[in-house]
Write a structure and sequence with these properties.
- The radius of gyration is 13 Å and the shape is globular.
- The termini are far apart.
- It is 0% helix and 51% strand.
- It is built from no helices and 11 strands.
- It is mostly beta strands and 123 residues long.
- The chain has strands spanning 3-7, 10-13, 18-25, 32-39, 46-51, 57-59, 67-72, 77-82, 91-99, 112-113, 117-122.
- The strands form 2 sheets. Strands 2, 4, 5, 6, 9, 10 and 11 form a 7-stranded mixed beta sheet that branches. A 4-stranded antiparallel beta sheet has the order 1-3-8-7, with no helix packed on it.
C-alpha cells in the first residue's frame, strides 16, 4: 500500500475549472494504476478516471471530454484537470492506487486511498 494525499478541491461556478493533485507520501508511485473516484452525498463511490503505469487512460462517460488525468513524473504527482464543471460534479474526490498494469474501474480493486478533497460546483 501507499499513502496518498489529495489537494486542489474547492468551490467553483458551473463552467469553471479545477485541478486536483494526488501525491504519494513516503515513497514514489511504483508500477501503480492511479485512479480518481468521487462520492456525492447519499450515493455510492463512482469511478471517474484512471491512469495506467504505461500511460493508458480510462474515463467515465459522464466526464469524458471534460476531465483529463495525467502524471508529472519529476513531481511524482497525478493530476485530474476538470473543465466545464457542472453542479452534478459536486462530490468528494478520492485518489486511489492499485498494483499492476490493468486499469479497473471498481473500488474493490484499489488498496490505497487518500482522505478525499471536496469539490463543489455552484449553478
Amino acid at each position: 500500500q501507499v499513502q496518498l494525499v489529495e489537494s486542489g478541491g474547492g468551490l467553483v461556478q458551473a463552467g469553471g475549472s479545477l485541478r486536483l493533485s494526488c501525491v504519494p507520501s513516503g515513497r514514489p508511485f511504483s508500477r501503480n494504476v492511479i485512479a480518481w473516484f468521487r462520492q456525492a452525498p447519499g450515493q455510492e463511490r463512482e469511478f471517474v478516471a484512471a491512469l495506467g503505469w504505461l500511460g493508458g487512460t480510462a474515463y467515465a462517460n459522464s466526464v469524458k471530454g471534460r476531465f483529463t488525468i495525467s502524471r508529472e513524473n519529476p513531481k511524482n504527482t497525478v493530476y485530474l484537470q476538470m473543465n466545464s464543471l457542472k453542479p452534478e460534479d459536486t462530490a468528494v474526490y478520492y485518489c486511489a492506487a492499485a498494483g499492476g498494469t490493468i486499469i479497473r474501474t471498481t473500488t474493490d480493486w484499489y488498496d490505497s486511498w487518500g482522505p478525499g478533497t471536496q469539490v463543489t460546483v455552484s449553478s
